[in-house]
Every structure is written in structure tokens, then in C-alpha cells.
Amino acid sequence: DIQMTQSPSTLSAFVGDRVTITCRASQYITNWLGWYQQKPGKAPKLLIYRASTLESGVPSRFSGSGSGTEFTLTISNLLPEDFATYYCQQYNSYSWTFGQGTKVEIK
Amino acid sequence: QITLKESGPTLVKPTQTLTLTCTFSGVSLSTSGVGVGWIRQPPGKALQFLALIYWNDDERYSSSLESRLTITKDTSKNQVVLTMTNMDPVDTATYFCVYSNYGDPPGFWGQGILVTVSS
Q1: CA B97, CA A79: separation in Å to the nearest integer?
Q2: A55 contacts in B (CB within 8 Å)?
């Protein structure tokens, strides 16, 4: 299986900050990478697919970049509703895999 | 609008077989590109892909759980069924049904169903 490693595991930030989450794949996955936001008790919500394409309705303060094995999710101007857990997911291979998650907390 | 809803037992005993049903609307598994599958999340832990079935009967499984999983579809009922054999307490998790267009990650998720494995 392709392993996905996110960093950091937890991130503390202020409202208004710009934050970046990194996801590394154990194998080359081109740009077959998605990012999700999950709030407690809720299903994950797709934010970005194909590494950098914003899902319809997702605010433009979210952006994704990268290709191959290194990817980033950036949230500019953090809003109170952005405090949540974020997951990356590769869908390059037969069997999808997720990162372990990054919890974005209020500082 | 695509909606999905999971149904099945919320409590199963160790060694039993779990059967979950996903009933969906707004899309048909007879349409080219459509895929419906399952992802789970143990309490406080990360997401884990389980299985996916596409309109053309292409089936995908988690490498680590493939021997215990079977996914089937009933196109006429707009349902997908997941069976997982030999359940263990470590399989306690919220099980989500998801929709994916071929080549894209899951963009629609059900609300999830918490399944507890305990004697």
C-alpha cells in the first residue's frame, strides 16, 4: 500500500493566520491527491482534488499544491469555522489510503 | 443532489459477519463513471478505505482487509452492500458510505453508522 504521512499532527494557530499542512506519499502518485476537512461528529468534506483543484463551493482561502510525492494544503486568513481536522488521501492506486490527519486548533 | 445513507446493525459480536447497506439517490450505478464504496473511522482515529464498486462491476478493496470484505451492488434498488467477516473489537468504527466519480476522490459521504463490536 502507498503510505501517506501528514505533518504536523497538531497545529495551533490564531484566527487570521496562514497555515500549511504537508502530506508525503511513499510512492509517486502524480497529482492523484485529495484534501478533506472533518469536524467532530461529521462526515469528511472534500476540499481539493487532483492536488490543486478546488471543489465547488469551497472558499478560495483554501489552496493545494504539489505533485509526485510532496503535497501541501494552505489555508490563508484562518477563520473560526476552519478549526477542524484535515486529511490527505491518495487515489492513484487500486487501494486508496489516507494520512493520519492534522488537527488545527485555536491558539 | 446526491445523498447516501448507511443502515445495518450497530452492535455485533466478535466472529460475526457484519452486513451494511448503503441506499443512495441522485445517481445511478448504471451510469458510466459512478462508483459507491465504504470508508471507516475508528473512534478518534484516521480514515481507512474499505471497498468500492463501479458501474462496470470493477471492485476495489483495502489490501489489508481484502480477504474479509465483499462489496456488491443492486442497481435496481440503488443499493450497495458491504459484508465483513470475522468481526473483532478493533473493527469498532463509524462506517461511511461514499460516492466517487471514476478517477476522482469521494465527493459525497453519508452521515455514517457507528458499529460496535463487543460480546
Answers
A1: 29
A2: 107
- For B67, the 3-state DSSP assignment is helix
**Residues with Cβ within 8 Å of residue A65, at least 6 apart in sequence:** A51, A52, A71, A72, A74
| B63 reaches A (C-beta below 8 A) | yes
Q: Which tens digits make up the pLDDT trace of B11-33? A: 999 999 999 999 999 999 999 99
Distance of alpha carbon A7 from alpha carbon A64, whole angstroms = 15
CB contact (8 A) between residue B46 and residue A34: no
**Cβ–Cβ under 8 Å, residues B65 and B50:** yes
Beta-bridge partner residues of A48: A35, A54
> Of all helices (H) and strands (E), which one includes residue A53?
strand A53-54
Q: If you average pLDDT over residues B90-103, what whole number do you get?
A: 96
CA distances from A103 to A56, B49, B88 (A): 23, 20, 28
Answer yes or no: do B49 and A98 touch at CB < 8 A: yes
